Amino acid sequence: MFFQHHKTLLVSLFLTAAAIQLQAQVEKVDIIKDFEAFLLESNKIEVTPTLPPLDTTTKIQNYNVPPRPLTVTYPAPKLRPIGYKTPKQEEPYNGFAKLGVGVPIGLWAEGGYYFGKSEKFDGKAWFRHFNQNNDNKLENQRYNNNEALVNGNYYFDNGIAIEGNLGYSKNRFHYYGYDHDSLSYDDEVTKQYFQNIEIGGRVYNGARNELDINYFVVPKYYRLSDNYSNRETGFLVDVGATKWFAEKHPLTMIIRVDQTTFKDNEKTSLNNLYYKPSFTYHHNLFYARAGLNIASNRDVYSLFPDVEVGLRIFGDGLQMFAGATGDLRKNTYRSMSKYSPFMDIREAELRNTKFNRYYGGLKGELGRLKYHGEVAYENAENLALYQAFFNPLDITRFQVIYDSVNIFNIQANAQMVIFKDMTISGTFSTSVYTPENESFAWGLPVLESSFQAEYAMFEQKLRLKASVFFADDIPYLDRNAGLDRGDFLYDLSVAATYKITDKINLFADFNNLLNNRRERWADYPTLGTNLFAGAQMKF
Question: The pTM is what?
Fold first, then answer.
């Protein structure tokens, strides 16, 4: 009953609360007008800014910064490349000495020293002695060569430099061109020596100057003598200058005075004067040189061209060139005896060879290959030819005769690196001579060629070299004035050099392994197979 009474009370309270809530929700609201918000109008005040007046007064600021030395208490860092092996630096050497002995009996002694360059002076000294004696197989086949040179340069503070040269040579030969089966001569009868003293110098700009002009004065003097009381003296001086434009276009002017005096029973002179102006223009695709060679002898002037043009067809790989040159080339006792030591100067006459040369060809560098080839035509007036004749002792000697000769020449040379330690190279030259009066161009070779191969192994310690030489047979007149020819030259030689230490090398040269006895000069066969071996030291 109690529970029923409470239940009735809870229901009454719930109904009363719901009635109150319902009455609150249905309360009435009247909307009189929509609300609108706005601002009153305002007046905009215009403000014009002005800059303050400049302060032109100078103010000096004084700063007092007390010195404070910085001390570094840690070592400087060392930068080392990763994965890079520093190559071993070769120790520089100023001098060398070479000593070898030969079979047949021979001796090679050579040495030189370079006086390291300083700010004021540098110089060098060099000598060589070379002899070989095959007298036990062929009487009087022997020779002895001696040469020495001293050179020095002095550099002044004003850019001028002076160079001096002193040279000496004494070369001894023997006339062994006779019938050894029926004749025999003492070496005092057959000997022939040439002694030459040469003094020279140069005054030039040792440093680049503001005008970009290179200048030089080069005087030279020589005195040649032999054991037959023949004497020749020569004096030559070149005076010239080169002005560079844009550092690649040279304008050059050279004046040369060349005087030669020869004395045997009589005294003769051969004096030339030359003027050589030229200008060369270099472009990325071509170059062109235009010049003249004006030569004078006994007040007779000759005008020669000095022109050349080159075109880069394929960069450095293929270049084409063509040109024309000419000169008065002196035939002196020194030049003729150097070409043929078995000549007789008593029958010779000093003359100028006047020549004009026209040429063209190709050259270039294609990777590991370097090459140069050209075709030339040359007209030579008074060209020196060397004809055999026989003196009262029946010993073959050569006299110089002159003739005008047209020459057509083809020549080429090339060098190629096969791989890192192997290189091959070769030269080739062939000429066709058309003399005006003589039947042949006596003493001049038609064909000459050579081929070499060099190979290094064992980390460059051992170097091998093989050489092959070819030359044609040269026509001459025999003792009966009949035409004869020498033998064809085919010469195979090998050489080896082995490095024992960085300072000492051993060498061996095996020459003419095929024992070819070709007569470059009629009745004068070559030495045949011979050997030289020894050591070389650097210091």
Answer: 0.78
